[in-house]
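Support request, please re-run this one:
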Amino acid sequence: MMSFTEDLTITLSLKIAGTIYKIPASDVKSLELDLHTYGFNGEISFIIACEESVDTLLPAIRQDDLIEILLQVETARIPPKAISIPLNLSGLVTLRSFSEQTLTNVLPTQTLMLNRHYHLEFADPAQVLWKQHHPCDLFTDSTLQTLIAAHCGEKIDLTYDWEILQVEHPVLSLSLGAPTNHASFYDYIIWLVDTHNGVFSYDLTTNQYSLTATKNSSSETRSLDPFEVAKLKTEFPEVLRYQANVLNAYVDTPKTTNVDNEQLIAPIRRDHIDRYPIASNMQARGTLETARFKQRLHEVSVEYQKFQLKVTPPNQSVDFLGSPAWNASLFNQDKSYCVREWHLSAYWQKQGDIPNHSIYEIEHSLKLESSEELWVDLPIYTQPVYPVFVEGKLVCEQGEETETPYQFYTDTNTSIDYYLVSIPLWENKQVRTSFQPNMDTGQFYFPRYKKAKVLVGLNFDNAFIDRFLDWENGAALPQDSQGNQLVMGKSTTSKNIIKHTYVDSKPDLQIERTEEKDTELLQFSDGYIILRTQLEE
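Re-run finished. Output below.
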């Protein structure tokens, strides 16, 4: 990348525990910034002289208080009557360090500190805070917007304009604290946007994030200055050659939906397979994958030979029409763009002749995308792992407190049957789980009984019963009997039992029916069969 030298005014302030520390622009020794449509990362170093004054920053920066950074970058040489638009950003410090320059033994009893050279790394608030956020949480009959808002915090200002965030789900869960899950809440947000065809963007000027259905670039278009630009390069991303398919593996309605691709090279394909018992869910997935399939348009790399007089940060609309110095035969000349990436590296060379600034060696570049580009630039993320397993108890509104009947419910919209399971960890919130055989074969009909302790798998927007975790009361037998039994019924006074045990090392089989005081027994023992009916008074 081309480098050049120029006078810059870099204004830096640090807010620590409510106190503002201002660093003179002439003391800033280096600055690196990488700005994207979704946030930014940066590094800055500066000198604080200690020879004749006390370094008041040291006591504060040694503490673990949150450090907020306020930064402004502007060219120091503004032509007469010209309007400058500087770069302004605010973020949070992640890493901090310093080195010290001393003179020792100038006098036998004197140690002199000359200066401290501080180095800070920083980023936008969502990256700094959400990357440390690994919650497990459960929401029922709620929306994604409610879930996300509950985890924003006061340092992250987030707006919403995306209809899927308003859809109410019976179950929504976060699995980010599970042992096998390395994804953070930041990863979760980026994954959600990527898989559901949304947009996550960040506005430097307002320090505000947004979750939207479509891209929103600035309404004002700034024309790039040809006298600032050193080089343009137009790039064409790789063309997608595969056939995208959505496969429904549900046995009653198997189906494959194809996504159109004019650049298809058969038989290359990418399949998205799942089970969709509800036809509308299959249709929605097909619509989603059709929208997610995007052939990328060309983009433009811009290298600078002067720092921008009017800074164009990410999400800023730009064009090449503002000056006749742009050659009319340029490929880009009649097209409109949006800034996707903004990069600056500035390293101190010497003190400038203008007060309160320095001369830096600079590398400065932009990456532009077409204003019609539908593809969304997102950071690399770790995909959240589902399910997360928690314990719960089956809910049944029938029967007495001491009884163990079963109950399932039917969704009025889909006619799908489900259980309700109470999750004690989260204030006994009740989650829907599918009413299905699970690990049993279809020949056995054993619905889960009231208050049964079960292991529940929580997925992104649904839940299921993985297995039972205890025996029903009265079902367990003494070990010395080496017995097995099948207990069926809703209480100890209304039940049927099939029991196999060993008596004197010989097998014994009993079939017993109990209804209040009425008991019938059929018993097969060594050498005899007992058939008994009994009614207690």
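The chain has four domains: 4-127+298-370, 238-292, 388-468, 479-535. DSSP finds five helices and 32 strands in the chain.
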